[in-house]
Design brief:
The chain is α+β, with helices and mostly antiparallel strands. The chain is built from two helices and four strands, in the order ββαβαβ. Helix content is about 25%, strand content about 30%.
Length: about 80
């Protein structure tokens, strides 16, 4: 198991009709958009919402490289 924490992450927004979700992924922005789009499927509009998080917020998330999760609140 990889115990190394990610040094960077970005927030991706996904919308479909009246629904908006925010995801954070420890990867470059283009890769994060692709991963979220692939996971959610057709009908979702996906874009980078914040290309780089503040180090203090990233530290609290404790993301591993390429890890992705949905956010309940925006930083």
């Amino acid at each position: 198991m990889n115990d190394k924490l990610a040094g960077f992450a970005c927030i991706v927004s996904a919308s479909k009709a009246d629904l908006i979700q925010y995801w954070v992924m420890a990867s470059p922005p283009q890769q994060a958009v692709f991963a979220v789009q692939l996971m959610l499927g057709r009908g979702w509009t996906v874009a980078v919402a914040n290309p780089r998080l503040k180090p203090s917020y990233l530290e609290r998330l404790k993301l591993r490289p390429d890890e992705m999760r949905e956010l309940s609140v925006l930083p």
